[in-house]
């Protein structure tokens, strides 16, 4: 890997890796670290070009972020881990499980989408406007390039097929808020594509881990700790 990812960790035991959403950082999981660290070695990572992790020279794609996670686990000497991803982090978690299934114990996907059509039009329209605006501005002001790259992650990515998800064999928890920016029928569809998946809809919007941590944490822990 051409960079070293920034991360924070707390607790001991089986590793649990947390992946934040688009344009965010490990700080998104401030309400999860202590609760989860009572049971696991919790590692919250800043993905490439986010938080305190450098951009590096590799391609800026969700698949590259999944490859970064594989290298990151090698670097820390972690053979297998539970992986929890939120929003774009959920997309990265799914891609990681598809490309490196032998490294995933249990997978939690929160507010993910298989492709941009899974996002409500009202939200996706704003993303597209920002994407084209920053693309134009970036021609004249290179300081805008990072913002454009981050928005680009939500315009043409991910592109995960039903047939791919059907190959997943590890236990998977598919989550979203009941008023999520992800379309109401899209999260149940993701769960239906994965043979080993459990669907969990939590009261709240897209940011249930931050705004409804009590219910979110309880659901995740029930899943991760079940025999």
Please characterize this protein's 3D structure.
By secondary structure, the protein is of the alpha/beta class. The protein has one domain: Rossmann fold. The chain is built from nine helices and seven strands; from the N terminus they run ββαβαβαβαααβαβαα. It has helices at residues 33-37, 62-76, 88-99, 121-140, 145-152, 162-165, 186-193, 208-211, 213-225; strands at 7-10, 15-19, 41-45, 81-86, 104-110, 172-177, 197-202. A seven-stranded mixed β-sheet has the order 1-3-2-4-5-6-7, with helices on both faces. Helix 1 (33-37) links the parallel strand 2 and strand 3. Helix 2 (62-76) crosses helix 3 and helix 4 runs antiparallel to helix 5 (145-152). The longest helix is centred in the middle third of the chain and has 20 residues, at 121-140.
Topology:
Blueprint: E1 7-10, E2 15-19, H1 33-37, E3 41-45, H2 62-76, E4 81-86, H3 88-99, E5 104-110, H4 121-140, H5 145-152, H6 162-165, E6 172-177, H7 186-193, E7 197-202, H8 208-211, H9 213-225
Parallel strand pairs: 2-3, 2-4, 4-5, 5-6, 6-7
Antiparallel strand pairs: 1-3
Helix pairs in contact: 2-3, 4-5
